[in-house]
Design a protein that fits this description.
Structural class: alpha+beta
Number of strands: 3
Shape: globular
Largest sheet: 3 strands, mixed
Order of helices and strands: EEHHEH
Number of domains: 1
Oligomer: single chain
Distance between the termini: 39 Å
CATH topology: GMP Synthetase, Chain A, domain 3
Strand content: 25-35%
CATH superfamily: K homology (KH) domain
Strand order of the largest sheet: 1-2-3
Number of helices: 3
CATH class: Alpha Beta
Helix content: 25-40%
């Protein structure tokens, strides 16, 4: 396990940008949203080492899934109390009712 401290449960991962490039690596820009700066510090780790390990593992998983090379850019952002913002909560797919199709 790469994180010695508990991974913050108030994390939201968003794909901000995805560019399919036929003559280059796919470009994927991701943000990890947390509620507190202390959570950001945990995810980044000392000298960014924890985030580097996370990004490398994620990139390898995505490359395996897509069967293509990717350039993965990850940024950790703090947005205080994002889970209490009903609009954001719904935007990220957590609100509403389950529909039977």
């Amino acid at each position: 396990m790469q994180y010695r401290n508990e991974i913050p449960y108030a994390c939201q991962v968003n794909v901000v940008n995805y560019k399919a490039r036929p003559n280059a690596k796919e470009y994927i820009q991701v943000e990890i949203l947390v509620e507190k700066n202390t959570q950001k510090i945990i995810l980044i780790g000392r000298e960014g080492k924890a985030l580097k390990l996370l990004a490398t593992a994620a990139r390898l998983d995505v490359e395996d899934f897509l069967q293509k090379k990717v350039y993965l850019e990850i940024e950790v952002k703090v947005r205080a109390n994002w889970r209490q913002d009903e609009g954001l909560f719904n935007h990220y797919g957590y609100g509403g009712q389950i529909r039977v199709i």
